[in-house]
Every structure is written in structure tokens, then in C-alpha cells.
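[User]
If only I could read C-alpha cells as easily as an amino acid sequence. I have put the entry right below:
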Amino acid sequence: MPYALVRELLMVRKQMIPPFLSQMVQSAITLFDGVEFTHISPQCRVCASPLRRHDLKQKRFATLLENEALKPVYVKVARYRCTGCGRLWYADEPFYPDTRHGVVIVDLAVAIAQKHPYNKTARLLQALGIRIDRGTVRNYAPRFSVHSTEMYGIPVPTRILSLSGLIAEGRSVKGAELLAALGLPYAKGAFPRPLKKDDRERIEEELIPEER
């Protein structure tokens, strides 16, 4: 993002958003930075076979504007392979299905969009220090419904407020604690990644022993 635009967004934030509110929102988001999410049901939801750990995938949770620079916030989500059908499952994670931002970001975008047009919602999110575009807001707004409380004229989702206790403790947190505070997991775990032909052939080679 051009330096001049970042400075402009920071100036807008100072004019429109009380520092307390901006700090609260960003503190809630940074709670997730680097946290691992590994919990999952031990059995495949399709064939009930045991799961085995496959890998740990880094996913971008949010992008913040901090000190005139972009700061990505990442989480790490474990993936598990079914030993029976070979499907790949994600551990319980702080994302809605088919979204490119964490639940907290989506909720905030939807809550503000319930009160303001999409372009103003994007500007307010950027003023809060969150990088997001109008098209993404327009994509999320009709798909989700969230509860919020208005603070300084900004609708703040209940899920952000529910993280205040963990913020106050000032310690590193575990993925399970964050999911519990958010009232998750969401139902994404019910939708495994579709298997491609090459995946199926490779998995069959790994799981089916050669005939002697």
C-alpha cells in the first residue's frame, strides 16, 4: 500500500475512531497471532475411521495497519488425514467457511455493514486499523448475521467483547481458549477438502498394502 495512503488512513482513524476502541479491536485480533489450532474429533465424519496428523497449515487471519505499515496476523491450523477414506480435515478453527479473514474480522465487517454502506464500512474498518476492501465487505455482509453492541457510534460484535477477559489477562492463549470465548467451533469441520484424482491415487498407495 502506498505510503501516502497509509498516512491518510491513520489520520482518518485519529479523527473518527476513539483510541480506546481502536486499541480494543486490535488487541482482540492480535490475540490470535501465531496461535495453533489442533483440536478435532478423532474420527472421520464421513466413514468414522481414525484420523492421523497430516501437517500444520499457516493461514492469514487478518492484516493490520500498524505504525504506517502492514502487519499480517497468522494462525496455524492442523490438518488431519482419514486413514480410511483419505479425506483431509481441518482442525476446529476461527474461520467461517469460504472466507479469507478470521471470524472476528468478518463479524466486525458484517456488524458495521448493517448500519453503513459497504464503502463507508470499508473506510471505518481501515480507520480501525484493519485492511479490507469494499468488495470483500459486500461479499460477507449478506452471508452472515451477528449480534453487536454500539460503542462510540460503531457496532462492535459480541465476539470481540467476549475476548476482553483474555486480553485483560495479558498472557499467551491457546487455540481452544479462543474458540471457547468465541463460541466456536463453527460447522466448517463438516466440509472436508474435496479429493483430486492425484490425491486419491496417492492415498490409495499409502493406505492399501501391496499384494504379496
